[in-house]
Amino acid sequence: MDFLTLIQILDSTIRLATPLLLACLAGLYSERAGVFDIGLEGKMLAAAFLSAAVAYVTGSVWLGLLAGIGASMLLALVHGLASITFRGNQLISGVAINFLAAGLTVLVAQSWFQQGGRTPSLMGGARFEPITLPFADALSGVPFLGPIYGDLVSGHSVLVYMAFALVPITWWILFRTRFGLRLRAVGENPAAVDTAGVSVTRLRYAAVLICGVLCGVAGAYLATGLQAGFVKDMTAGRGFIALAALIFAKWRPWNALWACLLFGLLQAVALRYQNLDLGGIVIPVQVMDVLPYILTVIFLAGFVGKAIPPRAGGEPYVKER
Amino acid sequence: MAAPDAAKAPAIELRGISKSFGPVQANKDISIRVMPGTIHGIIGENGAGKSTLMSILYGFYKADSGEVFINGTKTNITDSQAAIAAGIGMVFQHFKLVPNFTVLENVILGAEDGALLRPSLAKARKELTALAKEYELNVDPDSVVEDLSVGHQQRVEILKALYRRAEILILDEPTGVLTPAEADHLFRILENLRREGKTIILITHKLREIMEITDTVSVMRRGEMTATVKTAETSPEHLAELMVGRKVLLRVDKVPAAPGAQILEVENLQVVDSSGVQRLKGIDLDIRAGEILGIAGVAGNGQSELLEVLGGMREAKGSIRLNGQPLPLSGAGADASARRQLGIAHVPEDRHREGLILDFHAWENVAFGYHRDEKYQRGLFMDNDALRQDTQAKMAKFDVRPPDCWLSAKSFSGGNQQKIVVAREIERNPDLLLIGQPTRGVDIGAIEFIHEQIIALRDQGKAILLVSVELDEIFALSDRIAVMFDGQIMGFRDPATTDEKELGLMMAGITDTRDPVSQEASQHG
């Protein structure tokens, strides 16, 4: 493998890791607050569709992004209503959201655009274009550093930089602010928060809505950044891989970054080498595709030590004396 | 002792508080006055309405009617935040701490000074040092709460309240989980708080604590406040009578034990739990016929595991002999059913989890463990009529109220649930009775009855292994006392020649009882 190929694979790793990272951080906020969310997938999908649709109609990718965030937040609100206000089962609510999004996006897409459940291809201002960072061109002649800066660091859409910036920001919010302290507390022992005179309901809604915003960005990036338009089921299980990454990361922001980069790398390799030839033994692409899931199972089986979820996770808070 | 000053307004005054949950009236027209700078006890049986009353005061429940006055001002306490603002702090029976947070983080949670944590943490650290000095509330501010002993966790709860400028502190059954030494320390803290003018409400069912530390005491029975008296002018017997509504015998009458043949011999019993922690580190003990061996200790030092092994609910290494016959400790024949066949009856520590199925009828619960008995069989089927008759007879004999075998187990009070379990196990006439926390969550009247049954079984020449975290109970029943600490038996004592202090030190892992100073040191270690 030559240097340029490596750069290309890493470049594609960054792009593929971005939606995973956004969804993973989304899940982190929600689950740290004690609300399990397997509806990341559905929220991303809804956001992907609506952002593509609005971007196509208005020609503005920013309006598309806003619409995507709105769609995702609406579903997050449904999840919040079901699991916080009505104290329902969080897994069932999440599954319902996934089904709802999978069906509704295709149905509405067909009714609006008549293209078999997809949106028309996005062009120009309806897509997030790559940004060329300063000096990228000037440095392109420099060996080694040039390609790294020019191709790997520079040349991504603004959402990619945002996603990576969110890692330290999330860490700072969680561990350095009052909101973060309360958020972590409500996921560990909501009764402690309640008796301290802080509303458990408001905190959990806040967390679920932040989750909605980030899933919205992740979905919008899929349809308007990574690809040009919405296709049926385009999230392709990314919401679930993000969940696996979250567990693998033990619900910590920096770990989440590394986990998502690892899963992104696996996807990038699978994308580049359809059938990997290792000296006579051909590894079919399907093996590469399932690798993230197999890795997750192996990790969770105890390879990386115990992953302890937030203690109050998955349980609606019922006030007792 | 601070004398209540008649000129001052009461720190807390409740007037005519009533609260119903559906058809159950938990609080009926309750009025109470607590003067500032005093410790006021509230005593009553389980379900008497103590906790409901305090929850109303802390804003968890809204009273149906009645008024609350704090320092003479009518105050509307709608939620915990309002209670905190009114200067009320509450230390719950089950701590409301975030286990993986540090002490500091727990203290500032909900009372932060701004959006950023750093200034709040620094301020709390300074304040904690001051509070520690003032009230003997020493806790390392940087330790993680789940690594602390229960006594220290309780101090964190008190610190939380003081950090929020609480002038009125409510403690709900604070000593239930403490060793005697920890309880003594807690009382010292409370006395320090009283000296500084704080008002304390102590909810408990332990008469001894009321007598020891309170200035005034209110007694609750069935939702009503039956009396408020000065502690100095009352006696435990009188309070017990007010609680139960009839005369209660506080001491257990028993003749000296007449130990007979060796029933149970345990040698080098070892248990390693599923997470690899060694829970029993070589237990040796024996019990003779007609003898009660009481096991004292703070909860979680291996007592539960010992009961589970003997009852066939957990595998172990070592040797157990019953009537001279070795028992299998793992594999076939080491289960609860086999043990019961051999004459080992087991009243488990947690009746809700292991003693009963709460949604099942009383008669079904009476069958558990003995459902294969000959007398309950009719051909291929169970003879439910026989079972129900049997249950009815047991309920009559053990005074279970109401005596209706069709009620589900959950509709009985704690005391009556326990009577059902005890009846099931004792009536089988076992050679060895294992009984864990026989009177946990049981009211005084039923405690008296259950204690009598245990003594009666001993006097029939049965061997009894009693595990209890209540030292009073251990002293009242045991013929010999073993103290467990950290999976080991620290030693055996004769209840006639030992005292609470000695046992308390042993419970904290100290066998050298000549040096009481080292105990505090080890607690901080």
From TrEMBL, chain A:
Lineage top rank: taxon: Bacteria
Keywords: Cell membrane, Membrane, Transmembrane, Transmembrane helix
Cytoplasm is among the record's keywords: no
Location(s), subcellular: Cell membrane
InterPro entries, per database record: ABC_transp_permease
A Pfam family hit: BPD_transp_2
Residue spans crossing the bilayer: 12-30, 42-59, 91-113, 158-175, 205-224, 230-249, 256-275, 281-304
GO cellular component: plasma membrane
Topology with respect to the bilayer: Multi-pass membrane protein
Protein name (database record): Putative membrane protein
Organism: Donghicola eburneus
TrEMBL record, chain B:
Keyword tags: ATP-binding, Cell membrane, Membrane, Nucleotide-binding, Repeat, Sugar transport, Translocase, Transport
Compartment(s) where it occurs, according to its Swiss-Prot or TrEMBL record: Cell membrane
GO cellular component: plasma membrane
MF-aspect GO terms: ATP binding; ATP hydrolysis activity
Annotated CDD domains: ABC_Carb_Monos_I, ABC_Carb_Monos_II
Membrane topology, as annotated: Peripheral membrane protein
Main location: membrane
ABC transporter domain: residues covered: 12-247, 264-511
Keyword Cytoplasm in annotation: no
Family: Belongs to the ABC transporter superfamily.
Protein name: Putative ABC transporter ATP-binding protein YufO
